[in-house]
Specification:
- Strand 14 and strand 15 (about 350-355) form a beta hairpin.
- This protein has two domains: about 5-30 and about 280-390, Aspartate Aminotransferase, domain 1; about 30-280, Type I PLP-dependent aspartate aminotransferase-like (Major domain) (Aspartate Aminotransferase, domain 2), CATH 3.40.640.
- The chain is α/β, with parallel strands linked by helices.
- The protein is built from 13 helices and 15 strands.
- The strands form four sheets. A seven-stranded mixed beta sheet has the order 4-10-9-8-7-5-6, sandwiched between helices. Strands 11-12-15-14 form a four-stranded antiparallel beta sheet, with helices on one face.
- One of its GO terms (molecular function) is kynureninase activity.
- Keywords: Hydrolase, Pyridine nucleotide biosynthesis, Pyridoxal phosphate.
Length: about 400
């Protein structure tokens, strides 16, 4: 049985704050501060460039990738870290396209994160392919014999709607296509099983539910059946079979190592590695059960106390990730008033108040405080204050 009281103590949670925005940026694991300080004073300061060998900086992307693999249903040696999620999306989709020569269609949905769609649109334009975008509930019907790549985010960033990864992957395979899954709102939040779903490629970020810190590096997974055949368009020095031979011609490394691009972000990977320590005693079925309990209690409380808000997430927890959205025409101002009261969620245009529930550190008291504070703000109309309507650069 997972000790969630212990995992909560592993985080620095500012006094007086109820934090329900871990689906945007996870809080700081206490161990990360000390681990990064030790890396800088004992490794960078004293070893200088020798840290690449002596401190193991060069192999960090593989070692940290192995730790994430357990959380997404992957095996050792199948996940590698580095770069941003956008770059990893580009690598995965471009590699999948090249594995399906003669097919030129990429299918996605309108609930996908815009950055993923931007990448697919640009890639399609560059190689003469076509990006088709349909509504989330129309994806299965849109899988056709001309499809090359199905590119989806498993959990919708606005609504929390969760695609059936196994069913859609099977449908894509029946049509002869490959799948690319974005786990940005899944890894660390739900019970992902890439191997069980027989997916082809997956990518994800680590600064949300994995708590790696702002700008933490992304990860990419390649199914072993594709690992030595995948040819990403973006080929970098660290993905070469022999980087320090300095060959003029690119020769891909074996397996997922070929998905490395540039120099590893050592400081960020050190913080992420410390953050992953929290997961060592966590059972994913326990995580999922606690997530369902928290989100169900929050939905019930808000609907009972805040009738002006409209649920924007699936009511069935089996079709929902670990976040809940409610809609209101003045959603931005209401969220700013809520944050001013110490309950931190976020806003997504045009009208969604979004709340992320991270079982590692959120508990029932957080739900009760969030519901009570939200109800008071709506009852008193405090959100009408002009200062809550001034939009900041980041919402």
């Amino acid at each position: 049985m997972t000790d969630f009281a212990a995992t909560r103590r592993a985080f620095h949670l500012p006094q007086g704050i109820t934090y329900l925005d871990g689906n945007s940026l996870g809080p700081m694991p206490i161990a990360a501060r000390d681990r990064v300080a030790r890396m800088m004073t004992e490794e960078w300061s004293e070893m200088l460039i020798g840290g690449w060998n002596r401190a193991g900086w060069y192999v960090q992307p593989r070692k940290v990738g192995d730790r994430i693999a357990r959380l997404i249903g992957a095996g050792p040696g199948q996940v590698v870290m580095g770069d941003t999620l956008t770059i990893k999306v580009f690598q995965a989709v471009s590699a999948a396209l090249r594995l399906r020569p003669g097919r030129r269609v990429i299918l996605s949905d309108s609930g996908n994160f815009p950055s993923d769609l931007y990448v697919a649109e640009g890639l399609a334009r560059a190689v003469g392919a076509e990006l088709r975008v349909v509504a989330p509930d129309e994806v299965e019907a849109a899988i056709a014999p001309d499809l090359a790549v199905l590119m989806l985010t498993e959990v919708d960033y606005r609504t929390g709607r969760r695609h059936d990864m196994a069913a859609l992957t099977a449908r894509a395979h029946d049509a002869g296509a490959l799948t690319v899954w974005d786990l940005a709102h899944s890894a660390g939040a739900v019970d992902v099983d890439l191997t069980g779903a027989d997916a082809d490629f997956a990518v994800g970020c680590t600064y949300k539910y994995l708590n790696g810190g702002p700008g933490a590096p992304a990860f990419i997974w390649t199914h072993p059946r594709h690992a030595d055949a995948a040819q990403p368009v973006l080929q970098g020095w660290m993905g070469h079979d022999a980087p320090f031979a300095f060959d003029m011609d690119y020769r891909p490394a074996s397996g997922v190592e070929r998905m490395r691009v540039g120099t590893p972000p050592v400081i960020a990977l050190t913080a992420l590695d410390a953050a992953l320590d929290v997961w060592d005693g966590v059972a994913l079925p326990d995580l999922r059960a606690r997530s369902v309990d928290l989100t169900e209690a929050f939905i019930a409380g808000v609907e009972a106390e805040c009738p002006d808000l409209v649920l924007n997430s699936p009511r069935d927890p089996g079709k929902r990730g670990s976040q809940v959205g409610f809609r209101h025409p003045q959603g931005y101002a209401i969220m700013q008033a809520l944050i001013a009261e110490g309950v931190v969620g976020d806003f997504r245009a045009p009208d969604v108040l979004r709340f992320g529930f991270a079982p590692l550190y959120n508990h029932a008291d957080d739900v009760a405080r969030a519901v009570g504070t939200l109800a008071r703000i709506l009852h008193k109309g405090t959100w009408k204050n002009d200062m809550f309507h001034r939009k900041a650069a980041v919402t």
